[in-house]
Amino acid sequence: MASTARAHTNIALIKYWGKRDADLILPYTDSLSLTLDEFYTTTTVDFDSQLKHDHLMIDGQVISPDKSAKVAHFMDLVRQMSGQKAFAQIKSVNHVPMSAGLASSASAFAALAAAASRAAGLNLTPTELSRLARRGSGSATRSVFGGLVQWHRGIDDESSYAEPIMEKVDFGLEMIAIMINRQQKKVSSRGGMQASVDTSPYFKIWPEVVEQDLKAIKIAIQERNISKIGEIAEANAMRMHALTLSAQPPFTYFEASTIKAINLINQLRQTGLNCYYTMDAGPNVKVIYDQKDRPQILAALGQVFGQDNLVVAQPGPGIEYLETIECED
């Protein structure tokens, strides 16, 4: 009754920002992401009839029940689906900074959904697993799959799920994560989304903007046009962050070094390098570029931010089930 699964983070090229149903986690818009190989979560779930409640351990640290209520709620969903009555021992190891705008919740809940459902005796299809992962974290619905993935907003629980549009990304698309700040952000993604929905005067046109950007980037992907993909993703990210700046009170995930990175990427582009930036709800900047330009881009970024703060990521895989029932050290 134990199972171990690994899921990788994803970075949205076309952003999901705002829920129209907070309980089911149904978004206002579709979104499109790239799963990354370098950032992932490995989780083991073991149901035990002797336990009085779910026990959660993250990176070797025991998490108290009052701080793991979200996970306990998610496990209740798995128990409802499977008929499993026992509580579980959950051990999770993160290879991604938590709550820093690097999609740690995406990999965390995708891995939990996969490990928990299998340990509970469920044999979910990828689509069913995507729906389940969504109930833990919206972006987790995309981390079930590798490569380039679209999340269909849907109209209800059944119709809101992700599917890959290109699992094997073979045309040189890569990302460099500039690790500006690994600490937990001050404004959560959930809180930031709701503030934008409730108070930004521009949110009402956000779904229309996303629809246009999504159509354009899917054409660019079909054409394997990295420059166009980067251009659209960069514009979409700035439009998302404009919602936070126009909220009341206004807030931002940017730090001084975020602006420095943006300016440097713009400068590199003016020299002829096709590199673009995107950011989620956090200060860390992700650079979109063609693999052949990696040495020059790394050299330029390293001079300013240090090579130790740069992580090269390629398109990553979807859910992986591991034979061992123990998380790695």
TrEMBL record:
Keyword Lipid biosynthesis: yes
Any one GO CC term of the record: cytosol
Domain Mvd1 C-terminal, first and last residues per copy: 177-308
Origin: domain of life: Bacteria
InterPro entries for this protein: GHMP_kinase_C_sf, Mev_decarb, Mev_diP_decarb, MVD-like_N, Mvd1_C, Ribosomal_Su5_D2-typ_SF, Ribsml_uS5_D2-typ_fold_subgr
GO biological process: isopentenyl diphosphate biosynthetic process, mevalonate pathway
Gene Ontology molecular functions: ATP binding; diphosphomevalonate decarboxylase activity
Residues that span the membrane, as ranges: none
Sequence ranges assigned to domain Diphosphomevalonate decarboxylase-like N-terminal in this UniProt record: 7-162
Pfam families referenced in this protein's UniProt entry, alphabetically: MDD_C (PF18376), MVD-like_N (PF22700)
SUPFAM superfamilies for this protein: GHMP Kinase, C-terminal domain, Ribosomal protein S5 domain 2-like
E.C. no: 4.1.1.33
Keywords, sorted A to Z: ATP-binding, Lipid biosynthesis, Lipid metabolism, Lyase, Nucleotide-binding
Keyword rRNA-binding carried by entry: no
NCBIfam families with a match to the protein in the record: mevDPdecarb (TIGR01240)
Family under the similarity heading: Belongs to the diphosphomevalonate decarboxylase family.
Record-given protein name: diphosphomevalonate decarboxylase
